[in-house]
Amino acid sequence: MPDLSKRRPAYRIALIGLMLSLALVLSLFESMLPALPFLPVGVKLGLSNIVTMYCLFFLGARPAFAVAALKSLFVLLTRGPTGAAMSFAGGILSLAVMLCCRRLFSLGERLTSIAGAIAHNVGQLAMAGLLLRSVFAFYYLPVMILSGILMGMLTGLLLRFVMPY
Length: 165
What we know:
The chain is mainly alpha-helical and 165 residues long. It has helices at residues 9-32, 48-59, 61-79, 81-103, 109-132, 141-162.
């Protein structure tokens, strides 16, 4: 992927727009899938996070944060303010953790993906705790950490598979 800093602004905006569109389509596709009976309540595959990770790894932190924030705005329009707050908290914390994993610890895509998935779930639980004004949301933390590990491995593998294309 070419360095975005050396491209014209229109190219950068168009590429980030394409990434956002792909993330939104994957998010909609995932929401249309029937609930998988073996997954706990609230656990999703996180397909749109593959695009966010791609942006972080190949386009940089600013485009990745832009995609995550705009994805939350889309959630606001389609699912309401609670969903948007949860999406924003999870997405921004996830990106911050993945950025630290890449820059400070030089972790690979899979471990970075797992750390990001866990951070996403923790961010969403923290927002749920704030919205509910209760710590009871954190009782679900072990389930969400385990699902973050599993779904993070899955999205990391999927990213690894699609990177050559």
